[in-house]
Design brief:
Layout (H helix, E strand, L loop, with lengths): L3 E5 L3 H6 L6 H20 L2 H7 L11 H6 L14 E5 L2 E8 L4 E5 L13 H4 L4 E5 L16 H16 L3 E6 L1 H13 L3 E7 L20 H26 L2 H11 L8 H11 L4 H15 L5 H5 L6 E6 L7 H10 L3 E6 L5 H4 L1 H14 L10
Parallel strand pairs: 1-9, 4-5, 4-6, 6-7, 7-8, 8-9
Antiparallel strand pairs: 2-3, 3-5
């Protein structure tokens, strides 16, 4: 696939939500400058960022604001009991399956769930067989008390493709889900025929692609400093987890990553408090923040992209205060078999401007000339 890059302009729906019409870019840039201050503050607060960095799922009853957003957009019906469940390594994994055709697997970001693809699943299912899966520890999947690591979710997606999808597929991921899609595709090789990244997590390492060396712990660090640090972390993170569940705080943080915050509604806010009410949610949050976040530098984009062999789509919200367009440009330069589509949106373009994200995905999928007769995994 040849490298391509283009920008999608706001549709009539987006212009309706923005009464300034042709001044869309000016307004977006001004909003971005104001919200970037929030983004800088949040980058210093990894604990709070961990709850909503990648957006959230959908739950609750539609409000009047929801009705405005739903105009012209079909939305995945919310089911409090969930859709389908698969047992993986003794844990209950939640997923959605809709449509017929070539399979696509949607992978949510940190703190989200399958319902964050509320406006994407119905549209994509008109032409494709769409799966959306809750990563272990998130959404309606079990809040397992394990040592979380990026490879846990990679293993989950690899097994999901082999056991549930059971045929070559396309992986699509936002934020943490983007990096999970990459590492999974690198393992699945020919069983993944394309990957789409929406403001993906992950970072480049040194020139060799390896993470920086970490010195060994001293005896003092291991037996005195580390235990004291863990007690302190539990106290602080316990308070932050409680604070992060408060609706007002959730809404404030979400508005910092949605440039057009029209979709930051009660429907969205309530979706965070539901999974967070699980008895194990606090402990999972602690483990994610102290173990996964601190260990994520072990895996670099260099090493993963070097193993990738399929076409790559970079569908990027250019006004994201956390993962800006510079990363998309770097990925494109490192991996030539890529296409870049820029959207005037924040960290979650698939939910902020779903009509534009859906169009970009369908256009890219159509260009791949997918063969529905490909053999099963």
């Amino acid at each position: 696939m040849s490298i391509s890059s283009n920008t999608i302009s706001p549709s009539p729906r987006t212009k309706f939500l923005n009464p300034f019409g042709h001044n869309q870019n000016i307004v977006s840039n001004r909003s971005y400058q104001q919200k970037n201050k929030w983004g800088m503050m949040l980058r210093r607060d990894l604990a709070l960022k961990g709850v909503v960095a990648a957006g959230v799922s959908v739950i609750g009853s539609p409000s009047s604001a929801d009705a405005v957003q739903a105009v012209g957009m079909e939305r995945l019906p919310f089911k409090p009991e969930g859709y389908n469940f698969w047992t993986w390594r003794g844990h209950k994994i939640h997923y959605v399956e809709q449509g017929e055709g070539f399979p696509i697997v949607l992978i949510h970001g940190f703190g989200a769930s399958v319902f964050h693809w509320r406006y994407n699943i119905p549209e994509l299912a008109k032409k494709y067989k769409v799966y959306a899966v809750d990563l272990l520890g998130f959404g309606w999947s079990d809040k397992a008390l394990i040592d979380y690591d990026a490879m846990i979710w990679k293993d989950q997606i690899v097994d999901f493709v082999k056991e549930i999808v059971n045929e070559p597929t396309i992986l699509v991921g936002n934020s943490l889900g983007g990096f999970t899609a990459l590492v999974s595709a690198a393992d699945l090789q020919n069983n993944v025929v394309g990957v789409a990244l929406l403001n993906s997590a992950g970072q480049f390492g040194n020139r060799s692609g390896e993470p920086e060396n970490i010195s060994e712990e001293s005896v003092l660090e291991k037996f005195l400093i580390k235990p004291v640090k863990e007690v302190f972390q539990r106290i602080v993170l316990g308070f932050l987890f409680w604070q992060a569940k408060q609706p007002a705080r959730i809404k404030s943080v979400l508005k910092s990553v949605y440039v057009d915050d029209s979709n930051v509604d009660d429907y969205l806010v309530e979706s965070i408090t539901s999974p967070a009410s699980d008895p194990n949610a606090g402990e999972v949050y602690y483990r994610l923040m102290t173990r996964f976040i601190s260990n994520q530098t072990k895996y670099t984009l260099n090493s993963v992209l070097a193993r990738l062999s399929c076409p790559l789509l970079l569908l990027w919200g250019d006004l994201d205060p956390w993962v800006g367009p510079a990363k998309a440009k770097s990925i494109k330069e490192f991996y030539p078999n890529s296409s870049l589509v820029n959207l005037q949106a924040g960290h979650c373009p698939h939910d902020e401007v779903p009509e534009l994200a859906n169009k970009a995905l369908v256009d890219w999928l159509s260009s791949l000339k997918l063969d529905p007769t490909i053999q099963t995994v």
